[in-house]
């Protein structure tokens, strides 16, 4: 009889390992959380660069306006001092124009200074966002490489274990195998346990002296009275 249960117990050991590796495989972090964080960091970076760019365009527009005022004022000055204008009203008008342009230029210069500070602040923020985005990308890449390595290793283990299982099944009595398959579902994938002490390793309940005696007599049709698991005992 001892020859009947031992191959089944060996099959159980393989099944337990398969179950363990598959469970570990299923609980591996595939990096989806890190991917979300990385995408969020990339979106933040894009928004901040856009904000910087928008303000730079505003700065360039104001700067162009300033240059056109300067050009216009220079042209007025050339005319004013050319000596070709004799009409006092026209001269007065030119001087007013130049004053007005100088005032406008001052206003724009103030605005440009303020814009320059704001552009710089936005650039600092965008650069920080870029550093953060790179950090997130590196984290994700490292994690994905690790995940690929781990899952490949575990998948190899499962393939090897399944091959071992195919071999192990051939050595098990058919009727016993059917009983095992039914029990697996009811016993959280542990249908047969190896007894080494005075209780059931499956559920922890102490054996009655009757069961204990029969186990040690080499009886093989014994199950735990509490959890129904098959009991395998080897001297
Ligand atoms: Zn039990």
Helix content: over 70%
Q: Which radius of gyration do the C-alpha atoms yield?
A: 42 Å
Beginning-to-end CA distance, first to last residue = 13 Å
Strand adjacency order, main sheet:
1-2
Mean pLDDT: 95
Bound molecules: zinc ion
- List unreliable stretches of 5+ residues: none
Number of DSSP E strands: 2
Report on the architecture of this protein.
The protein has helices at residues 2-26, 32-80, 88-169, 174-186, 209-216, and strands spanning 192-194, 230-232. It is mainly α. α1 runs antiparallel to α3 (88-169) and α2 runs antiparallel to α3. The longest helix has 82 residues, at 88-169. The chain is rod-shaped and about 135 Å long. It starts with a helix and ends with a strand. The model has no long low-confidence stretch (mean pLDDT 95).
What features would you highlight for this structure?
single chain; 235 residues; mainly alpha; two-stranded parallel sheet; 3% strand; binds zinc ion
Summarize the structure.
The protein is an all-alpha fold. The chain has 5 helices and 2 strands, in the order ααααβαβ. Helix 1 packs antiparallel against helix 3 and helix 2 (32-80) runs antiparallel to helix 3 (88-169).
List the helices and strands and how they pair.
Blueprint: H1 2-26, H2 32-80, H3 88-169, H4 174-186, E1 192-194, H5 209-216, E2 230-232
Parallel strand pairs: 1-2
Helix pairs in contact: 1-3, 2-3
Bound molecules: zinc ion.
The site of zinc ion has 8 residues, from loops.
